[in-house]
Design goal:
Helix content is 31%, strand content 36%. The chain has 164 residues and is an alpha+beta fold.
């Protein structure tokens, strides 16, 4: 299977949005179950392109099947921190795509002189936690009962890595 992993471009915005909608609709892996309006995501991507932020996509047969981005926080005392978001469309999970996406995105984020990369992941998403640990993220803490969805609570694990 041929998978291309590269930095996102303007022509990829619709594909990225479709992949985001696909993963969000599962209700399992992202905080949101309904994605923001297309225009908001378009502006998000255009800002990332303009500022050379670390936003990468995985493409199979000219279709976006995954993404990873590490975007610097905007508060003036937190611009050294990047927040990770990522997702893979269900048919393409377990094939190593997430690892490849994450490694390229992390390398780009460090080249942008960020000093801390952080993420939040549901405590029952063991596969993602193992991926993040494999890519040098460490658990910092747990937000107990942080999400309530489909009549159950989920804890959120906070993970991060730091540059030297």
């Amino acid at each position: 299977m041929s998978i291309e992993i590269r930095q996102i471009e303007h022509k990829d915005i619709r594909g990225f949005y479709d992949a985001l909608c696909n993963v969000a609709s599962e209700g399992v892996y992202l905080l949101t179950t309904t994605p923001p309006p297309y225009e908001k995501m378009e502006n998000f991507v255009l800002n990332n392109i303009e500022n050379n932020h670390a936003q990468y996509i995985a493409i199979h047969n000219e279709k976006v099947i995954g993404w990873a981005d590490i975007i610097p926080l905007e508060r003036n005392t937190m611009t050294h921190v990047g927040h990770l978001g990522m997702g893979i469309v269900s048919d393409f999970r377990g094939l190593g795509i997430g690892t490849d996406l994450l490694k390229k995105t992390i390398a780009h984020a460090w080249s942008q002189e960020l000093k801390r990369l952080k993420l939040e992941v549901f405590s029952d998403n063991e596969i993602a936690i193992k991926l993040y640990e494999k890519c040098s993220f460490e658990i910092e803490g747990v937000k107990k009962r942080a999400r309530f969805f489909e009549n159950r609570y989920q804890d959120i694990i906070i993970m991060a890595q730091y540059s030297i």
